[in-house]
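Obj.: predict assembly geometry.
Materials: sequence records (below).
Method: joint structure prediction, all chains together.
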Amino acid sequence: MTHLASICLLLLKIHTMKSCAGVSLKTQELYALVFVTRYLDLFSNFVSMYNTIMKIIFLSSTFGIIWYMRGHKLVRQSYDKEQDTFRHYFLVIPCMVLALVIHSKFTLLEVLWTFSIYLEAVAILPQLVLLQRTRNIDNLTGNYIFCLGAYRALYLLNWIYRYFMEKNYHAQWITWMAGMIQTAIYADFFYYYFKSWKKNERLKLPA
Amino acid sequence: HLTESEKDEL
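Observations (raw structure tokens):
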């Protein structure tokens, strides 16, 4: 739900302000790759209606955001292309190599799923780099990134709960480790987010 | 039971 909220915040910003200033297209494209490689079981593995609908929402909204940033006449103009310089392959290749080395089963679907877990953990990095270069971070962008970081932190709590409360729940070391790293990457952002919130000031990251 | 390949999370 926090993940869904983050997407709603981002779409709200882009749609109402007709601007994607401070939003990293690189991070959005990495997320698109995360969802495509993770949800390859969309039609073969039915978990629940909720699960299927959320997968479709995550996939379609991410491609919608990318379309807005690349294709919409007004939104495209507000994109900070010169600042958003992080290279995709810098993250994609190491994650692919890691997925080929550390996975639970050597099948195409499993390796791609593991890749998506690793890539998700670091997909925020281009956004954080852009954020640091952005002078005026608007509230919606700040809250968007906060929610995007919070959902994995909440997963950590959920994993602990499931581990102790669910009889047939098995240890998932790949997901847990990647989730911990993903949350840790946000630690610095969370610190400045709460600091600015407490002081009632505009969010600003130190250079 | 739930194994790594029976994924129920998003």
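Conclusions so far: Chain B touches chain A through ten residues (CB under 8 Å).
To do: check interface contacts against the pulldown list.
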